[in-house]
Amino acid sequence: MGVKVRQKTKGKGKPWWVFIAHKGKRGSKKVGDKAAAEEVASTIRAQIQLGVYSFDEEKPVPTFKEYADSWIKTTVPATCKPSTARDYGDLLKIHILPVFGDTRITDITRGKIKDFLLEKVNEGYAGSTVAHMKNTISGVLNKAVDDEVIPANTAHRLGKIIKVRNHDEKIDPLSQDELKKLLDIVQQEEVLSPWYLMFLLLSRTGMRIGEAMALRWSDIDFNGRFIHVQRGVSRGKIELPKNGKTRKVDMSKQLTEALKAHQTESKKKGLALGLGDAPEYVFTNENGGLIDNNNWRKRVFDKALKKAGLRGIRIHDLRHTYATLRISKGDNIQDVSNQLGHHSVKLTLDVYSHWIPGKKKDEVDALDDAEYTLESEKVGNKE
C-alpha cells in the first residue's frame, strides 16, 4: 500500500495531490492545500485498512520495464547524443532490467536502488559506471513522475554512496613476485590444484570472473591463440559482457598449453557424466554445471591467498594485476585497453595512470645544473 502527498510543481498557491498505489492499481487526486491533502490521505489509508476503498478509475501500475522502454524510445533520443542513448540502452539491458524489469514502478524504493548500486560497487565497477546506472534509473523514474504515476523520484539524493565507495580506491594488484607465489601455491596444493587453470586464466588475460565462469570450449581458438569473450554470468544468469560488446583476448603459450591439457581432462569428465564429450563450459562443478561465484571465492580463492601468505584481495584484483603488470613494463596502452574490454583508452588511463612508467628521462635530466656529474661517471673518468 502507498498513499503519498506532494505538490507536482512547488510554489506558494500551487495545489497539492494525493497519490494512491494499492494492489497493482494506482490513482491520484488533486486537493487544495497541504493540510487538506494530508487529511484526505489519512482517510484513504484508513479506508484501505478497512478494505472499503475503491479507485474511481482503475489503472494497472506499469512495470519498470514498460516505463524504461517508453523512456528509451521517446525521451532519450530527443535529449541525448546517440552514443549516450546506446550507453543507456546497454545499462538497462545488461544490469538494470534483470533486477527491476518486472517490478511495478510504484515498488521501486530508495532502499532497493541503494542495495543495487552498492552491489555493483562491491562487484568492482567504477564509480563513474555506477553513477551512470543511477542516472539511468533516475531518468526512467522521472518520466513516471511526469506522468503522475509516482509522487517522487526515489533515485534522487544517492550520490554519497557512490562517492564514498569509489572503485578507484580499491585497486590492489599483486606484484610479479606475489602473483608467482600465488600460482605456485595453487599448483602445488592438492586441494587447490584443480583450480590452477582458473587462476592462470584470470591473471594472464584480465578476464572478469563472470566471463571466465561463462567461458565455453567453443570460445577458444587454439590455433590463433585467442579467446572470444562473448558472455558473462551474474547471479546465476548468462548475459552479455559488462559493456555489452564481445572481444578477443590473446592467450600466452603457457595458458594455451594449460587449456589444452584441461580440455583432455574435461572430455574424460564429460564421458563419466554421460555427456558424450566435455561439458559445454570450461570450468564446471562436479555435475558439469556452472560454478557459483561466491562459493568459489570463499572455498578456493580466499583459501589460496591465505596459503600463499598474501593479503586479502578481491578476485577482481587479478584483473588489475594483469593490467598493471603489462602497463608497468611499457606495453601498448591501447592493446591493454582492448584486452580488458574497456569502452575507451581514457578509462584505462584514468584507472591505471599510476602504473605507467616515465618515458621522458632525458627531458627531466635537462633540469639539472649543467655542471652536475653522477658519482658513477666521476669514478669512470678516473679510471
How would you describe the overall organization of this protein?
The protein is of the alpha+beta class. It is 51% helix and 10% strand. The protein is built from 17 helices and 9 strands. It has helices at residues 34-50, 64-73, 75-79, 82-100, 110-122, 127-146, 159-164, 176-188, 196-205, 209-213, 253-272, 293-307, 316-328, 333-340, 345-352, 361-365, 375-382, and strands at 2-7, 16-22, 25-31, 59-60, 220-221, 226-229, 232-234, 237-239, 247-250. Strands 1-2-3-4 form a 4-stranded antiparallel sheet, covered by helices on one side. A 3-stranded antiparallel sheet has the order 5-6-9. Strand 2 and strand 3 form a beta hairpin. Helix 5 (110-122) packs antiparallel against helix 6.
Query: How many distinct beta strands?
Result: 9
Poorly predicted tracts of residues: 163-169
Helix- and strand-based class?
A: alpha+beta
Averaged pLDDT, please? Answer: 81
Strand portion, in percent?
5-15%
Work out the radius of gyration: 28 Å
Oligomer designation: single chain
Tell me the series of helices and strands, N- to C-terminal: EEEHEHHHHHHHHHEEEEEHHHHHHH
State the helix count.
Answer: 17
Major sheet: 4 strands, antiparallel
Ends apart, CA distance between termini: 91 Å
Shape: globular
Please give the order of strands in the largest beta sheet.
1-2-3-4
Helix content: 40-55%
